[in-house]
Predict the structure.
Amino acid sequence: MDWHALDLYCKDLVKEAGQRIRNSFMTDITVESKAHANDLVTNIDKEIEQFFIARIRKDFPDHRIFGEEGFGDSIEELSGMIWMLDPIDGTMNFIHQKRNFAISLGVYEDGIGKLGYIYDVVHGDLYNAIDGHGAYYNDERLQPLPPTTLDESIIAMNAFWATPNRRVDHEGTIALIQRVRGVRSYGSAALELAYVATRRVDAYISMRLNPWDIAGGLVIAKEVGAIAGNFKGEPANLLEQDTFVAANPAIHEEICSHYLKLK
Ligand code: IPD
Ligand code: CA
Ligand code: CA
C-alpha cells in the first residue's frame, strides 16, 4: 500500500465531506434520538457516512468500513484494511451550535492505525497523521509533547463524568479535577484528541467511547508521543465501547491512578 498516496486521497475525501456538511447549514435538518433522549443523530450524520461508504466501496472494494451510523460492515475482528469513521463527532454541538464538531477517520491495517484524520469542519482545520511519518495541523508538522506535570495541566472531559452515575467512578474524577490546573469540556472526543496532540490540553479522558470516536485521533496522538488507551493501561479498544485516556506521557500514569477502583 502506498500510504502517502492514500493519505492524499483521504484528505480530499474528508474535505469534500466537510464541504457537504457546510452546505447542509442552509437546509432543514432532521434530528432523531438513538439509545436515549440526548443521544442524537441527524439526516446529515447519515448522509455523510453514506457518502464516505459509497466512495470507499467504489475505490477500495476489498476494504471494510466501521461507521457509527451502521451503514458499513459489522466488524468483529480487525484483520485486513478497515476504515473507522465518525461522520460527525459532536452531533449535539452540530445541532445546537453549528460548530465544535469534526469528521473523524482512521485507516487501520490488521488493527494497526496507519492514517488518521480529524477535520474541524467549520474552522477548516485538518489534523492528520501517517503512522511513523508524523502528525500535522494544517500540513504543519506537530512537535513531540514536552514534559509537564499534573499541577500545570489542563484536562478535557465531559463534565457529566464528575456527577454520580452508574458505571462511573465520579470520585476518582473529582479527585483528578481538584488536582489539575483546569478542566475543559468541548463536546467532541475527536476534537479533544486533536487538542491533546496540539497541546491545547494535556489530556482527554472519557468513561465511555466507541472505536469510531478515537480511531483517527489515536494515530495522530501516537505520532506526537501521547499515550492512549483505557484506564487499565491497556491499548485502546477498537471493537467495543471502553474507558479512554489520551495524555502527555508525563501525566498518563498519574491520571490512570485516579481510577484504580475500576481495575
Ligand atoms: C460523542 C462526542 C462527545 C462524547 C460522547 C460521544 P457523537 O460523539 O464525542 O463529546 O462525550 O461520548 O458519543 O455522538 O457526537 O458522535
Ligand atoms: Ca462520536
Ligand atoms: Ca457521530
Observations:
- The chain has a mean pLDDT of 96.
